[in-house]
Amino acid sequence: MAKVNITRDIIHRQIKERGALGFERHYHVTDPFIRRLGLEAELQGHSGCVNCLEWNEKGDLLASGSDDQHTIVWDPLHHKKLLSMHTGHTANIFSVKFLPHSGDRILITGAADSKVHVHDLTVKETIHMFGDHTNRVKRIATAPMWPNTFWSAAEDGLIRQYDLRENSKRSEVLIDLTEYCGELVEAKCLTVNPQDNNYLAVGANEPFVRLYDIRMIHNHRKSMKQSPSAGVHTFCDRQKPLPDGAAQYYVAGHLPVKLPDYNNRLRVLVATYVTFSPDGTELLVNMGGEQVYLFDLTYKQRPYTFLLPKKCHTSGEVQNGKTSTNGVSNGIHLHSNGFRLSEGRGHVSPQVELPPYLERIKQQANEAFACQQWTQAIQLYSRAIQKAPNNAMLYGNRAAAYMKRKWDGDHYDALRDCLKAISLNPCHLKAHFRLARCLFELKYVAEALECLDDFKGKFPEQAHSSACDALDRDINAALFSKTDNAEDKKGGGPIRLRATGRKASISEDEMVLRERSYDYKFRYCGHCNTTTDIKEANFFGSNAQYIVSGSDDGSFFIWEKETTNLVRVLQGDESIVNCLQPHPSYCFLATSGIDPVIRLWNPRPESETLNGRVVVDMEGASQANQRRMNADPLEVMLLNMGYRITGLTSGGAGGSDDEDSSEGQVQCRPS
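Structure for WDTC1 protein, as requested:
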């Protein structure tokens, strides 16, 4: 952590009133606070799993909802229960929200009985009961700009909007996902942008996360009602449920092509939680069955694998976040049937020498790589990349570490790093080669062959190396194999967009929206999210400096946002941590899960004895979670019952790929 002069900042805060907010945001959550985070108290009062938590705007009240169908309002700063009431629900409560500008008097709950209830806490009564959904209600969302309005997401595939000013006790359908994805789609989570309440993000039981413009949807429906020809349709005329431009999709670029494999292994991809950063420019998604992803809503980029399917791209399109006006993007020629390495050696960007402290970090990373400590090497390279984002060698080295570790999504991150290294240094030989290997591992076999052929043409002295020959054999064997994956690739249309293994009806509009999806910026690994579909991930800190997520192993994980490095793991539940809600202005965290208690966490005094809830072996916990995510569902069930399964294969420490082992080490050394 960089040194700061806190005394000077305190003086400025006292002299300049307008500097108080900046001071609070800067020192809200800091690295020393995170490293001293420990358990302060447990709030007891529920008799079932605590499925949802919600702070009020001031941060002096905390509401909770539980399987016991009760909601409790707490004074968390004094560890007191202020109010407990039965909500009238007949099943588990999954969501609880304070209605903005109601003086913390109105509380909204959604539950597994398909109902949404509105409660007046001053009289402990339920004042509205909405029963319009036909399946479990998973999330409620509110918006300060609309103090009498709120939204619900349910497993009937509907997003409903409620206005408490109207006398009607019914709601209206804002978004019907079944019109796009068929009747099997389930809405799992939603959230409203805190800076622009016109934007609503929705997660469902699939890898695509949707961002909607509420204002455009309402204006479209008003114009439809006012149009004199609104009720007249021809066979060629089709009324779109949403106007063009009202929806934008986001997806981790490697996930859609992985769906057939995941479905075959009964591994479900579902967005269990979505939330915006405090400034509204980023979207965080906890993807069940996978990792936590952060999407940049300002500097968007297309998924890197989206340049691969045929008939998808032309010159002038945005590729990898940059517009290509001549068919070249990041040193790679984009063709209708894939891409080709730029001809000739090109211009080599001069590599700026790393300052001594970064050179030391790089050497530490190289040593970790040589000892096959892949995660440690990745974290060290990431730390150096944060300080030197234009150094091709660091990206190339980190790509090699990703390829060796082989956790879920690692080959796609390696592909991204290879492309970045090539954009910075078009003559980065090993980045070119590893690009072909990544394409092969990601099941883009034909594209991998084309990439390898181009590599041989650009670097003829490497054309007959053992690594090249081995990859060539692998690619050709895969091309002539009769596996199901090969047959899928030969089918019409890109595999990443088709419905897979389900009787889902994907509309043409849905196909277009998926084709226009944007990729993630950061990925956070280590936790496990396969057992529950309400597991949260959140920004921690007013400036969103950290990411926190619950896990199936009973721990919660904390990462640095910018480096994606795991910095803290704490045991938060005897079984599973589902909920993590940071305090709006203090370094204070509320968590809950299967245990019928709420746990409060804050930085503990330096004089306090060792925190017994700290998971010291973070690497071991992360590897165990990778094995858990890739285990057979029966084995996971046995693990949950307390049996130890010794036959699970490791997701990270497996053998190297077909490059010789010395090559992996040499590539870490300076050119």
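The mean pLDDT is 83.
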